[in-house]
Amino acid sequence: xxxxxxxxxxxxxxxxxxxxxxxxxxxxxxxxxxxxxxxxxxxxxxxxxxxxxxxxxxxxxxxxxxxxxxxxxxxxxxxxxxxxxxxxxxxxxxxxxxxxxxxxxxxxxxxxxxxxxxxxxxxxxxxxxxxxxxxxxxxxxxxxxxxxxxxxxxxxxxxxxxxxxxxxxxxxxxxxxxxxxxxxxxxxxxxxxxxxxxxxxxxxxxxxxxxxxxxxxxxxxxxxxxxxxxxxxxxxxxxxxxxxxxxxxxxxxxxxxxxxxxxxxxxxxxxxxxxxxxxxxxxxxxxxxxxxxxxxxxxxxxxxxxxxxxxxxxxxxxxxxxxxxxxxxxxxxxxxxxxxxxxxxxxxxxxxxxxxxxxxxxxxxxxxxxxxxxxxxxxxxxxxxxxxxxxxxxxxxxxxxxxxxxxxxxxxxxxxxxxxxxxxxxxxxxxxxxxxxxxxxxxxxxxxxxxxxxxxxxxxxxxxxxxxxxxxxxxxxxxxxxxxxxxxxxxxxxxxxxxxxxxxxxxxxxxxxxxxxxxxxxxxxxxxxxxxxxxxxxxxxxxxxxxxxxxxxxxxxxxxxxxxxxxxx
Length: 569
Prior knowledge:
- With 569 residues, this protein is an alpha/beta fold.
- The protein is built from 18 helices and 20 strands.
- It folds into four domains: 10-177, Pyruvate-ferredoxin oxidoreductase, PFOR, domain III (Pyruvate-ferredoxin Oxidoreductase, domain 3, 3-Layer(aba) Sandwich), CATH 3.40.920; 196-370, Rossmann fold; 384-454, no CATH class; 459-568, 3-Layer(aba) Sandwich (Rossmann fold), CATH 3.40.50.920.
- The protein has helices at 23-36, 82-87, 117-120, 126-138, 142-153, 158-177, 199-209, 224-237, 247-259, 270-286, 313-318, 334-351, 361-365, 434-453, 477-489, 511-516, 530-539, 557-568, and strands at 10-18, 40-46, 55-63, 74-79, 92-101, 112-115, 195-197, 214-217, 240-243, 264-268, 290-296, 327-329, 354-360, 368-370, 459-462, 468-473, 494-499, 501-503, 519-524, 545-548.
- The protein has a seven-stranded mixed β-sheet, with helices on both faces. It has a six-stranded mixed β-sheet with strand order 2-3-1-4-5-6.
- Helix 1 (23-36) crosses helix 5 (142-153) and helix 4 (126-138) crosses helix 6 (158-177).
- 49% of the residues are buried.
């Protein structure tokens, strides 16, 4: 008799309360405990753009198998204030449980797990008490929770750490005497050592592994943590980081560093990128390598500064006046954030062009359990070329078959390097010769052919010649993949096509896939279907329809399935 395979346990835990109640500390510590215990997580952080006050949540979807998407229904709601239980009561799953403070007056409610925060640690340590109670209910070991607490608070006053440890111990002791309605997680298989990283941290580590030497930035949510992560490692890695007065300074300073031979990057969001566009054109004209990380959030203007959206694809594609080549990556996972950032540095140097890493607030702030990156055999980029590769007398913008000219670093050789933001001759001197203008435009555009030859093909998964093909880009990858799995479980022929590079497009990589599907639906986190429009512009292929989300929340499998059902009804 064949044993029935055990169905994976997936649970969505949401911590809610007011800003300032320690929600981030509780959520981060809980996620770290889960990862160290061998589970997989997908974190969704939802916070208002206020320093104090306002309702925030930290959601952790946890499983004993691989997961890559957030979930809308809540299985365990940890309410650090009275309002949280009311705000999210309609989101509870059928067996959902609410963990609340005893003072809330919720005793006797069938879905309530009432915890006396005041008796166990007081209002100031309510989040730590909640951490202990939740970890106990889930079946995590007390010692492992205390170790995580040491890591989180170890750099603080010893008395603070002692009080937090005592609160955890009291919480575990109380939980042992007060059975929980929360079903413990199944024993984890472990799955090997894992790091807990979010997308922004992975972008920073990818840049450092690629040989980043200079980063300039003006703080802007949700990109700032890229820069803060680089700062943590800057001294050890020999990186100069400058926080400047505005984004105009950031892009121009980074271009100056790159011109001088230091692989450079800037990180910003849509509003900051708006100020950088003239600098992007300067990179195009002077053929200076630069990597730009753009972490998207809803606009226009300030929009929803702490929410997520995929509204800047067309903006980044066309940002900067004039015509010049670029490449745009759109990571769909934390792992891709690392590897595609490395790829961005390699292409920027090889083709002497701006290259963009386009991500969103959801992925930027979403922690995942990630296998340690194998950096052996991943050499950093080397700026410039050897003088033996350049014809003499040296011409910085020499016409070549590929459009790429040998790049000597100023001051590194005896040869003079001349560059100009105006149109220029091959030796870099300003010109208004219109024949030279044509030559230089065509020279720069030739580099796009090289970039296109290295375009990463979109990832195909699922049935051949499907009834339904779901197309995605960026952080919608996990939600689309899970929704497709649900549909295949119902007997439907479904496939997915995910773009982790959205420019240049190479139609021969994917057009046949689109044409062989009975119905093609593009899933995007914007209102206008920007990838679908871009594909139609480049190939003539029109999607059957689009599922679009633009309320500031991430795309989920439930959202996709509900919208597909509406189209079929």
